[in-house]
Amino acid sequence: MKRGLAIYAALAYAFLHVPLATLVVFSFNASRFTLWEGFSLRWYHTVFTDPEMADAAWNSVIIAVVSTIISTVAGTLAAYALWKRASRTISGSLYLSLVTPEIVTGISLLAFFQWAFRWLGWHLGLYTVILAHISFSIAYVAIVVAARLRTFDPALEEAAMDLGATEWRAFWRVTIPALAPGIVAAALLALTISFDDYVITSLVAGVDSTTLPMVIYALARRGANPSINAISALIVVVFGVLILISERLRKA
Amino acid sequence: MTRRTFLAGALATTACRRDHRPRLNVYNWSAYVAPDTIPNFEKEFGVRVRYVTYESNEEMLAQVITGNSGWDVVFPTHNRIPPMSAMGLLAPLDHARLKNLGNLEAQFQSPSWDRGLRWGIPYMWYGTGIAFNRSVAPAPRSWADLWSPRFKGRLTMLDDPEDVIGASLLKLGLPFESTDPAQLRQAQRALFEQKPLVRAYLNAEVRDQLVSGDVLAAQLWSTTAAQALDAAASLDFVFPAEGFPLYCDNAVILRESRRQPLAHVFLDYLLRPSVSAAIAQSTLTATANAAGRALLTDKIRNSAALYPPPDVIERGEWPGTLPAAAQRLRDRIWTEIKAA
Amino acid sequence: MFRLRFWFLLPARVWFVILFLAPFAIICAYSLLTRGVYGGVERPWTLENYRRLIDPLYGSILLRSILLSAAATAICIVLAFPLALFISRATRRKSLYLHLVILPFWTSFLVRTYAWMFLLRDTGLVNTTLIGLGFLRQPLPLLYNEGAVLLGLVYGFLPFMVLPLYATLERMDPTLLEAAADLGARPWATFFRVIVPLAKPGIWAGAVLVFIPCLGSYLTPDLLGGGKSVMIGNLVQNQFTNARDWPFGSAVSLALMLLTLAALAVVYLRGPKEML
Question: What is the pTM of this model?
């Protein structure tokens, strides 16, 4: 049985990774088509010299970083408060937000923004995308931090307060450091989800807020384009490195 | 650094612009400018252009219709102009600022959808027809040919309700712009019959599949077809016998735009013969600019797909704007066809 | 008494009102309004959109979405179980194996879907290889059909099934397996009579994490289905963009939400208590 499982696992991993590996390999293909015509970096050159791509990448990074920071803070605070004393409305709505299909979240936010902007005269833009990303990230952060909180011993906080610390100091000096790995994991999760979100972003983006997934989708709709392979390869590498770093930090 | 200052700094970075040149936001169809069209404009006038592309009128309208999309110049197809102007979305053109207006072809100087060119500048025009692989014999000549079982699985139709429902109406000998519910339902039934033969409903993406031979026949716009023909000698294009729609994409300025003078400068720039010729040469589209057309190479100027001869154009028609109820019915029919 | 509670919950409460409740309320309101001629919403208030939903056409879209999602979930369970078992039993490098499962997930969903388009086209890698090796003379139509959509869904959500299964299997008490062996059970019997039942919380958790997003997915059917296989997600997206019928789109979204809640209710009532 053990041998069988190992063979199966190998096949399963192949299934998971071969499509991506193929993308990466063919990003070095000199030709536009699937026939291999020699090694070339031309698609990477196209990706790096395209100003639209650079703008989109920059936007994606800003949106991901800002929304992650805000949602991690909000989510952690909420998870902690709920752990101390439950609130059915907030935890219910967080859970609901988690299970709502992306398309529904997207159109409801779009409808809300359009309605609000009729009175305010604002446009869709970078900030609407950030707000939308915060909207779906908070629930993810809260869930991960809540899971981590379940392994946290409240006695530590009580001990700190017995020794004279205020609630806030106890939280900040005792709980947060203990929760740190969970918070980092939650932040990483929020970062990834935000960076590669397409559905919600495409609905609420404005003039200035094209993101990398939107560029990829537009290219994909126009037909086969190895530039997509190149961008994908870059994204895979960047996130692979990020995970490696986070793992190193976690073990350190 | 405290969390708060970091946050404030991050938010500030998102708000600050990276340069202070005047901006112009242009939203256009994909593959509709030459690589140097926009950079040259930016250099000559010292402005920065945010240039983003879309694949369908609906995509563009979804943003523009809100009245605060942030775009200055967009490129609707001609039959969207009357409703857009009726809804107050367009800014009237100031002809005094458009010195190069005379460069347009005679037929576009005062077209039926925009007499006197009050709202938009005709930019590129095209028709819908059938692109096919020469290996197919006999070659398709009419919309009815796209219902033939010999194309099963190797046929694509456009992902566009107007074109697809229109093709079905023409195949049945009914008017392209029919608003009669009975006729529209007939067209719908014909499309249900066709669906098993259709590989997919695709727009420009099908070009690569035609070139590689995966797809044998595709309902396609003439400009996309011209691009495919250029890439593969095995392809050909025909305007169907029963009739076909002709479209013209126009550059318009949105009323919400706070940069209308600059937008006029941009439109005038597009009307220059050299600029429009460069675009048409590079993208293989049919320009509405007569002076520009004169500058094209013979091969492109005489391309039957891009610039069909007058007797072919005779068979075509420029679709107008449909009344609301008919539009609603067509949208509904389209949903039903896609869902079947 | 946690005095800081008010401040700690404040960001979440603001989020709740502005980014959760308000949008939801707007959608409810829109679903009862009428479509403007070229988009947008206007009065009169009407139940027309809900009446339209009852049309068998939309019923069939709903059914297709449920069936495809259920199929994808079932396939995911079958594919994920042995893998999760393998990882939970690995003596070393467990963390590596887990990371190898998660790594595809960290790349963009769009990228992964595009990878399959790249592989499955007529001139894609699969067909080119099979033709090159002589197994085929004509390319197989692997793309633009429901099979491709199913494949895309399974591929995209498989990690979501592996992780909860792994979490449950990992906590399984090995002495139970020894006991079964002592009582004379053969490996397959142990598997079906002991392991699978004990893994039920993991299976339910994974099923929820796969079924619900599948139900609402729209990218996969859009790109891999060639615009031919419409799922609920496509319908909603279509009504809000191309068809410009926001009221009807809102009604469909609410129907989708209802379906999601129904699925959750099933889990709540029939699923194992440990899951909650």
Answer: 0.82
